[in-house]
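Appendix B, example 12.
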Amino acid sequence: MSERQPYDPDNAPDDDLFEDMMSAALGADIPHPVDWSTLSAAERRDELGRLWPWVIELARTWPVSRDVIPPCWYLHESLIRVLSAFRDAYLTAYDPTQAASAAADWMHVWDATEERLRRWVARAGCRSEHHADRIQRWVSDEDEVAVTADFERFLADDFQRRSADQLRTASDDNHR
């Protein structure tokens, strides 16, 4: 019998190798959650750009009121993160490698997420006084153009602000 060796992080298995092996076994990439706090300005812009159409489709498919998904969801970091996690759960559940029951499991996640969104919308201050009507017209064809323009303006402004913050942080780090 061989003696057990202490853990040596320098000789640990390669995480990339493990992921490659798992991807090959699954026939697809392993889905990963988005860690919003680690994204660069450009990565955040790209990720928000991917999240936007998914949220639009979610609001069209699952009619919910503005107290669950307000049209200004992207202005609230908590809603971005909850919706992103929910999207990741959806993508995982509907991956071709999943069992047929994964879709039903996702429905349970939707029930919990809907309540979580409602709580965070209330905490964010989005209520009927903030948004006059409670019907989800913001995802209708006629309103989508205006709402998309607002989102694209936010995306550009957010990118510029975060890029400037990154440059400022990098400059501060270089002067230390």
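Confidence is low (pLDDT under 50) at residues 128-135. Residues 68 and 118 are 5 Å apart (CA to CA).
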